[in-house]
Write a sequence for this structure.
């Protein structure tokens, strides 16, 4: 690479303050792209040597020097402005031909800077910035650029494509070595052979871990295309933030957090471009709650934690964060409080043990008050000020410094002090101050009510808090002449200090006000997707506000709405955690028969069931039913609803008869009280129809669902999700009774409607597509069946997760399709995986576990392992008989497969016995024209031929072929197979609930 002949040499040293690394790296890249040698050198003058010596050392480098000047550059040290004036005036003129400068300053700079003739790059586009830079260095702007082998850093005036992080701390000091170390670890290098994609910044509270992570994101921001900040103090918060990234990345996702998170993780794993993505998990103290959220593969993940919970976690490297060095402490204090001398700053740093959090607050207080620094330090070493109750668990420096600040605030700015106390009753990481300005009249204490309704006083109070205390203000992102404060952040240790500084009466006053603020913000529609964001933002504040102990019915309603929101959104783990926390409080404050407590128990049972914790759900459901039976009349709605919920759990556990009895009672009593077309009656009738279907009583189930469907079509609209759900179940029963054309016709219409009102990733759309795929398969349209079944299985796994019951349903049916019409090896693995997951979810003796094991045996038989197929088939027949009885359609199907396995094993007599018995019972249970009955008749014909009874075999065969042709058509695959004497089989289809 050639070099331009520059006056003064060929090499350019770019001197910059660490704050402006993005500009330095961009300038170096531009110079190297034009064949120049260029090096970036961070400027960090020491304060313990004369400034002239530091500046001479900078000028001693080879070649030309380019200073990247901004206001921060002149604040390093800090160096007195007079020292800068003298150094620039004396040292620049002799080397004026070697020294150039660019300016990014937005405030006044020392007058002698004019000697450097800086060009202003602030607020320019990249083309003009390049032109000005090159002209200042006497390089022809027309000279073509040759891109270096490394990727180009982003132009600093152009933020990353996706950027959502807290605003930069303009008072950030020091930590340059730590930041460079983090950058080297994440990117690899000479000292770090293998890059670490996950780093955790670990240190005790108050050492500045969050500030370091924030500065890293800003300082190295032009290395990334995506930078995303995640509050990880609560799992629910972390999931919401990670899920919110999916649509920003343009990933095709629906509303469910689980689907969105899996999409982000998959993008980070598989997409090479994700190397330029940075995710920051702040406050990630609980590794057990967060480990499954961290993406693998490409991209960088930075965490902050005060505990050693990540120690030993695979793929996570720790970086210890210590307090400031003494030089950093002194520099920070002198920048924040210019009146403090270097000696006083040193003494102050020693008093607070160089902890950045305390230095920030003590320096802010000293800057705003005239108390002599020596007296302030004396007070820090003395006991706490009177009037504040302090817990002994705090370090002495914290207690005293914060007590002094709080006392000063109370004396001089009473309303601001009250506001600070109220803010301590919200989550410290995202205090929603905008909710305070929207409360109803008299919801707050009169002093605070007056404050929030006076915009000038309100903003002045917030500003005082940010100056006096460990509080940080975040402003609205929307452009505005006077942007409002969006939310407030408070250090967690300071947050705890404020709460414990209140006496019980004061704490109750502020707790009640915080609860009222949250109540006023309740949308009261937890199932409405438009309000999900609001509930997600309310949940973190419930515990801090004291919501779980507040006796007001409106607060009970809000808490229950939050639990319900988590349930309908599919956030089962977070829903159970919140429900358990609430239950621990309500058990001690509410009567066992209190409506709110019973409603909470009911919701917990629903979440347990939907999350697959069926045994726990059953135990809870039986407990609630037992308690209500003792306290309520037999027809009380609470008891009936509890029985209906228990029935749904028993249905999932395979206890179909008990479930049917509970549904029958609930439906009858609801009908007596509210009428046959009331919503609770229809819901219980719907569940009754499911129980009848799972009991194999398809005709009865079809009639029940037909009636429910007709009522919902009449009472609701035809496009209502409940109407469509009823229609899909009704179509499924029609298919199970052998009428494939009508079932397909109905499902086609349902799928089209669902595509119009929702997206194809909604669980209801996925399962409707899956059911239509089964219809197409039974009708012999294998190409469409393949497309729909494979798509439904893939979408279910992505949207609902690999272990969700509906995912297992879709994958089980796709595995049986693969066995007949796809890759046999893949089908075997798929079938065995589904059977194993069902066994873990429901237990080995559940009908779904038995049936999917039978499917796995069928796949092994097709792969040539006939001995294994026989073992699986015989075992499935025995176990299914025990589980659901001899005459259940599932048992008849297992018997049909057992007869085929015996036939392949040359047990002709045993095969005949099984096929004959299956035919007799199938005619009785399903009728003579049902496809399973005709399959049994074809199998019996095959066994009769093997026994040498050809005339009888021919009669059964001809009858079966005739009926199949009449029912399914002469060209249907089943008809053709019977005509060609292909042995029939039966696939177990687990039914979605």
């Amino acid at each position: 690479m050639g070099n331009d002949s520059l006056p003064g040499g060929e090499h350019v040293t770019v001197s910059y303050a660490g704050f402006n690394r993005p500009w330095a790296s961009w300038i170096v890249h531009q110079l190297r792209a034009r064949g120049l040698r260029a090096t970036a050198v961070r400027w960090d003058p020491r304060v313990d040597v004369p400034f002239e010596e530091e500046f001479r050392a900078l000028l001693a480098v080879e070649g030309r020097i380019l200073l990247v000047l901004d206001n921060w550059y002149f604040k390093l040290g800090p160096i007195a402005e007079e020292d800068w004036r003298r150094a620039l005036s004396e040292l620049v003129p002799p080397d004026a031909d070697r020294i150039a400068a660019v300016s990014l300053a937005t405030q006044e700079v020392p007058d002698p800077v004019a000697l450097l003739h800086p060009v202003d790059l602030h607020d320019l586009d990249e083309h003009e910035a390049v032109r000005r830079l090159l002209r200042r260095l006497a390089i022809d702007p027309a000279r073509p650029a040759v891109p270096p082998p490394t990727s180009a850093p982003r132009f600093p005036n152009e933020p990353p494509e996706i950027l959502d992080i807290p605003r930069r701390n303009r008072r950030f000091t020091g930590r340059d070595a730590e930041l460079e170390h983090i950058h080297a670890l994440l990117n690899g290098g000479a000292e770090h052979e293998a890059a670490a994609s996950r780093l955790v910044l670990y240190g005790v509270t108050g050492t500045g871990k969050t500030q370091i992570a924030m500065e890293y994101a800003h300082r190295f921001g032009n290395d990334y295309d995506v930078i995303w900040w995640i509050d990880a103090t609560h799992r629910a918060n972390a999931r919401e933030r990670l899920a919110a990234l999916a649509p920003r990345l343009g990933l095709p996702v629906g509303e469910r957090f689980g689907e969105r998170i899996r999409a982000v993780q998959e993008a980070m794993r598989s997409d090479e471009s994700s190397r330029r993505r940075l995710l920051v998990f702040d406050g990630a103290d609980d590794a057990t709650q967060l480990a499954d959220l961290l993406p693998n593969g490409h991209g960088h993940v930075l965490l902050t934690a005060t505990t050693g919970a990540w120690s030993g976690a695979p793929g996570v490297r720790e970086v210890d964060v210590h307090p400031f060095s003494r030089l950093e402490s002194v520099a920070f204090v002198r920048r924040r409080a210019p009146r403090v001398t270097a000696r006083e700053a040193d003494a102050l740093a020693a008093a607070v043990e160089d902890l950045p959090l305390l230095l920030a607050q003590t320096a802010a207080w000293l800057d705003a008050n005239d108390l002599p620094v020596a007296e302030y330090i004396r007070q820090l070493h003395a006991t706490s000020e009177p009037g504040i109750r302090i817990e002994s668990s705090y370090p002495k420096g914290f207690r005293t410094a914060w007590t002094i600040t709080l006392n000063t605030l109370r004396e001089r700015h009473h309303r601001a002090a009250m506001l600070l106390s109220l803010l301590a009753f919200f989550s410290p990481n995202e205090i929603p101050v905008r909710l305070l300005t929207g409360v109803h009249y008299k919801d707050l204490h009169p002093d605070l009510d007056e404050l929030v309704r006076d915009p000038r006083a309100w903003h002045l109070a917030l500003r005082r808090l940010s100056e006096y205390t460990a509080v940080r203000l975040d402003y609205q992102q929307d452009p505005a002449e006077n942007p409002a404060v969006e939310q407030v952040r408070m250090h967690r240790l300071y947050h705890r200090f404020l709460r414990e500084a209140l006496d019980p009466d004061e704490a109750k006053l502020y707790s009640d006000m915080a609860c009222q603020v949250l109540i006023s913000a309740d949308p009261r529609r937890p199932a409405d997707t438009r309000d999900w964001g609001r509930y997600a933002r309310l949940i973190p504040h419930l515990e801090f506000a004291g919501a779980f102990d507040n006796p007001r019915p409106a607060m009970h309603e809000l808490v229950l709405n939050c639990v319900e929101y988590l349930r309908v959104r599919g956030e089962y783990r977070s829903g159970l955690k919140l429900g358990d926390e609430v239950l621990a409080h309500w058990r001690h404050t509410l009567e066992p028969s209190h409506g709110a407590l019973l409603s909470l128990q009911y919701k917990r049972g629903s979440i347990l069931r939907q999350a697959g914790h069926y045994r726990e759900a059953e135990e809870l459901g039986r407990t609630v039913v037992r308690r209500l039976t003792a306290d309520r009349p037999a027809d009380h709605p609470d008891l009936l609803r509890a029985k209906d919920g228990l029935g749904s759990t028993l249905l999932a556990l395979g206890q179909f008869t008990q479930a049917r009895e509970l549904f029958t009672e609930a439906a009858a009593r609801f009908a007596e009280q509210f009428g046959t077309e009331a919503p609770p009656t229809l819901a219980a009738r719907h569940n009754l129809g499911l129980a009848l279907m799972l009991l194999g009583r398809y005709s009865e189930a079809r009639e029940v669902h037909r009636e429910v469907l007709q009522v919902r079509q009449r009472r609701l609209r035809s496009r209502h999700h409940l109407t469509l759900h009823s229609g899909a179940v009704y179509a499924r029963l029609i298919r199970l009774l052998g009428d494939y054309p009508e079932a397909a016709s109905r499902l086609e219409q349902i799928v089209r409607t669902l595509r119009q009102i929702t997206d194809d990733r909604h669980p209801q759309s996925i399962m409707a597509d899956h059911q239509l795929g089964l219809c197409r398969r039974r009708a012999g349209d294998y190409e469409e069946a393949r497309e729909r079944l494979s798509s439904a299985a893939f979408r279910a796994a992505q949207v609902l997760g690999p272990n969700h019951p509906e995912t297992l349903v879709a994958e089980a049916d796709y595995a049986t399709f693969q066995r007949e019409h796809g890759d046999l090896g893949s089908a075997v693995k798929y079938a065995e995986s589904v059977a194993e997951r069902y066994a873990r979810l429901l237990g080995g003796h559940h009908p779904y576990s038995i049936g999917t094991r039978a499917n796995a045996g069928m796949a092994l038989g097709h792969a040539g392992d006939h001995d294994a197929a026989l073992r699986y088939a015989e075992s499935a027949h025995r176990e299914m008989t025990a589980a659901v009885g001899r005459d259940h359609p599932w048992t008849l199907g297992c018997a049909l497969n057992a007869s085929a396995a015996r036939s392949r094993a040359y047990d002709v007599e045993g095969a005949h016995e099984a096929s004959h018995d299956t035919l007799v019972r199938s005619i009785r249970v399903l009728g003579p024209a049902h496809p399973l009955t005709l399959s049994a008749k074809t199998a019996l014909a095959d066994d009769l031929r093997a026994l040498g009874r050809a005339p009888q075999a021919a009669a059964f065969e001809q009858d079966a072929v005739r009926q199949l042709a009449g029912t399914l058509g002469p060209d249907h695959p089943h008809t053709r197979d019977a005509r060609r004497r292909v042995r029939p089989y039966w696939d177990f289809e687990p039914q979605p609930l």
Observations:
- Confidence is low (pLDDT under 50) at residues 1-9, 384-394.
- The longest strand covers residues 11-16.
